[in-house]
Design a protein that fits this description.
The chain is α+β, with helices and mostly antiparallel strands. It has one domain. It is built from 3 helices and 8 strands, in the order E-E-E-E-E-E-H-E-E-H-H. The strands form 2 sheets. The protein has a 6-stranded mixed β-sheet. Strand 2 and strand 3 form a beta hairpin. The protein starts with a strand and ends in a 5-residue tail after the last helix.
C-alpha cells in the first residue's frame, strides 16, 4: 500500500491509484481512506444552460457547468467501500458540499448509488454513478460483480 497522502479529491484519470486520502466533509469531519481509488463519475457539462443573461446560474436554476455532482468510489485496505459524493459549484460565494458514505458490501454500494426519480418514482443508477461503478469494476472483482448483477441500470 502506498504511503502517499492526499488532501484533494482525485481526478477521474487517477483511478486505480493506491494511497491515503484525507477527505473533509461538509460538516468539517475528516475521513481517512487508506486504499484504492476505484472510479469517478460526474454530471459536469462544458456548456452553460438556463441562464442566458447571467454568468452564473441563480439558485434553483439547473446548469451542470455552474453546479454538478461528482461521485467517487474507494475501497479501503479493510475492504470497506467508500462513496464520496461532492456537490460541486463554481458559483462565487458557494462551496463544494462533500458527503462520505461507508458500505460493507458491493450490493450496498449499488444501493448507495441508486436514485429514485421524484416524478416517475423510477429507480435508476444516474449517469455519474454508472460511470463510477463501471470504472470501479475494472479494478475490483466485488465491484464488477455488483456492476454486472445490479438490478438497476
Amino acid at each position: 500500500m502506498s504511503t502517499t497522502t492526499y488532501t484533494d479529491l482525485p481526478l477521474a484519470e487517477e483511478h486505480g491509484r493506491s494511497a491515503t486520502w484525507l477527505i473533509t466533509d461538509r460538516d468539517g469531519t475528516v475521513h481517512t481512506i487508506a486504499g484504492v481509488f476505484l472510479g469517478m463519475g460526474t454530471s459536469y457539462r462544458p456548456e452553460h444552460k438556463g441562464h442566458p443573461d447571467t454568468d452564473w446560474a441563480p439558485v434553483r436554476t439547473h446548469c451542470s457547468t455552474c453546479r454538478w455532482t461528482e461521485l467517487r468510489i474507494f475501497r479501503g485496505a479493510d475492504r470497506t467501500f467508500y462513496v464520496v459524493n461532492c456537490g460541486a459549484s463554481d458559483v462565487p460565494g458557494e462551496r463544494d458540499l462533500v458527503h462520505v458514505a461507508e458500505v460493507a458490501t458491493p450490493f450496498e454500494l449499488v444501493e448507495v448509488l441508486t436514485a429514485v426519480d421524484r416524478r416517475t418514482q423510477k429507480v435508476s443508477l444516474p449517469m455519474p454513478a454508472r460511470r463510477a461503478l463501471a470504472m470501479a469494476a475494472s479494478h475490483d472483482a466485488d465491484a464488477r460483480d455488483a456492476y454486472v448483477n445490479s438490478p438497476v441500470t
